[in-house]
Fold this sequence. Notes:
Blueprint: H1 12-21, E1 24-31, E2 34-41
Antiparallel strand pairs: 1-2
Amino acid sequence: xxxxxxxAEARPEELTRIIREHPLGVLITHDAExxxxxxIPFEFDPGAGAHG
Length: 52
């Protein structure tokens, strides 16, 4: 996926803040029937390894 530099976020503390404040995402898939969007929760456990 192309991500322009001005939209990129690489600071771990900022990514953690975003996940905590907005813990719901959308997984979008495409198959022969078309697009499908499913809401999924983000789970963040800071004690589970280097990246939570």
